[in-house]
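Dear colleague,

Following up on Tuesday's group meeting, I ran the structure prediction for the two-component complex that the binding team flagged. I've pasted the input sequences exactly as they went in, so you can double-check that nothing got truncated or mislabelled along the way. The structure tokens for the whole assembly follow below. Feel free to forward this to whoever is handling the docking comparison.

Inputs:
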Amino acid sequence: MKVELISIGDELLIGQTVNTNASWIGEQLAKRGVEVENAVTIKDDKQSIISALDVALKRSEVVIITGGLGPTKDDITKKVLTNYFKTELVINEEVLTRVRGFFEMRGKEMLDINIQQAALPKSATILHNQVGTASGMWFEEKGKVIISLPGVPYEMKHLLSTQGFDLLMGRFGVQELYNQTIQFQGVGESYLADKISDIEDVLAKKNIKLAYLPSTGMLRLRFTGASSDEVKKTISETINELYNRLPKYLFGGEGKGLSEVVGDLLVEENATVGTVESCTGGALAKEFVQIAGSSRYFEGSIVSYSNELKASIVGVEEDVLKEFGAVSEEVVLQMAKNGRKKLNVDYCIATSGIAGPTGGTDEKPVGLVWIAIAGPEITRAFRFQFGNHRGRNIQSTVLTGLNLLRCQLMGL
Amino acid sequence: MKVELISIGDELLIGQTVNTNASWIGEQLAKRGVEVENAVTIKDDKQSIISALDVALKRSEVVIITGGLGPTKDDITKKVLTNYFKTELVINEEVLTRVRGFFEMRGKEMLDINIQQAALPKSATILHNQVGTASGMWFEEKGKVIISLPGVPYEMKHLLSTQGFDLLMGRFGVQELYNQTIQFQGVGESYLADKISDIEDVLAKKNIKLAYLPSTGMLRLRFTGASSDEVKKTISETINELYNRLPKYLFGGEGKGLSEVVGDLLVEENATVGTVESCTGGALAKEFVQIAGSSRYFEGSIVSYSNELKASIVGVEEDVLKEFGAVSEEVVLQMAKNGRKKLNVDYCIATSGIAGPTGGTDEKPVGLVWIAIAGPEITRAFRFQFGNHRGRNIQSTVLTGLNLLRCQLMGL
């Protein structure tokens, strides 16, 4: 079945609100093996809604509309749909009772515009909203299904999760799709494409599509194919082959970030970690702490941004600082080694670099970063040359540091 | 002019990536007085791109396309556009030189697929990309403008900000709107609306629109009106009135984040700052360090996530930790006071809280956060009760801590 999303709302078009509804519905349908073919965003405007519906019903079997069902004047979807499907509004007693209860529970007065929320198109099947006052509506027209939902994310999610998706899957016989996504660190899109072009050719013959999804310091690779045993086997074997071929870069499947993967390895080893950060300034620590339960392995950090603190708190030797400068192999090694002791941890990641946009020299340009990993057995330092963008240099250093620790933990 | 956005990418339709490009472009155009009328998201697929272009060129004067310009096989926009506009790909020497430099600077090998990024449609005006390898393309066809941009957000933003928007505004002679945005911390949308309802009435009479733009721990308020001296004067006077009325919440105009505003105050006072963090885990330090030039005032941090480090490195008394628990007024005050000394700074922000989603008790529920600010003269602690979401609790704590320091620096 071809699915189309119509998001209604001026606030989406002028960027006041990011359209997370469309991505949520897209993801939920993809999980069920259904891909959204088109997603359109339009204004809170009668003609825009009618035009979008005309187009959608020509090319799609299912149209999911979000937005425009609130009680205020600018929310007109219900009226437009009632006219479009040549039906009429009638008070739905079950809905009216629930809306009334909703206001009583909150001790609020029920206004006439709230009563109107129980006036619903006669021909529509109602999706009952237990978390708000706007009902969902399910229309059928010439074998096509049109679902209208409120734009408030948790109400929309509630209506689809409890009723909409089940009705939809039951209504259509769906050929499922199968997806797998894997995540890489430290490798660019074109490098990866080059390294796996042989694999890509084989997959293409089996109608398995590859998508490269890059972000700063990271690259996700998605496989999509029919939901057959053969495709699943091929994708699974391909992923195993990639783990063998690119173990330093391929760190895991979707759903787990790099700091979680590292966290799992640390838990497995019953080991703890801390960081001593200069150019990342706490961003590496934050990456651990944002994971719930990271207190099992993450102890803490020293952000020694100034040279004074590198000496006073971390204990980097002042003559080493003077001779080699803060951004050097010698200093980052001392930061990592001393950090292990000061923070009383098994592993310590240390960073020192020139994040930019200024502060670079010919010898030490912006983007130069040293990272050291100190462990119970070895301490190693690595040199990187990133780009000119401060935020991306920091993010790249964070992810690279995590991946270097992962490699050390895995003996790579 | 009617503007339409076409976002290309399977990852957007199946919800792996939220379409922040569309909202950013929508916001930027709205600021310039231009509203996007339609935004469509389609697959990485030749026929989808052609159909979307056919529809868009019928109803819109300007079509901005994002996505599908990377070097890999799934990125096909450039080829499709080259055929659609009946032109041909030719190597652009200027682009080739820059792409080559891009790889040389990073010491990476340039592959044939990278060279192909310099092959561009002959009839297109090139928007030059200084931050990546995919160029922007500007086509004109029957008085309509079609702009194609890479989907990577910072590359897209760079191309529009440095070239695209100016070209567009010039090409269509758009009447400019005047915008001012101010930023609040610690105040909700409805509270603010209540406090300024009198002002809002006055502005409405002068056709100056107000937009509330909330995000976690922050609220932006945007004024939009005609670009006349009277409107500019009214907005300027209104903002001054708001600075007087809400000094604890209103921290500045757009373009400067809260950590920058605090940084400016510290520079003015020739003072330094550091942080001792528990629940924020380095996120507060990161907020300082992400600002270029923050080394003038930011010295460093201790992330004492474990209780052991709160005692060993920060020097919180163990019996105080035991008696009151890590999340307490007593502990956070010691963290801030000791931090001032250990980090040798004038001001220290300390945080301790239960970020969640688990770990709460009846007495100390998830979302409870203590923040202390230690300065040369006074040290104060503040108690907050945020929500259930770990990431939002951390972010709210970071922004609240920065704003408390701002208030202390300003004597509020």
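The first helix of chain A runs from residue 10 to 13.

Cheers,
M.
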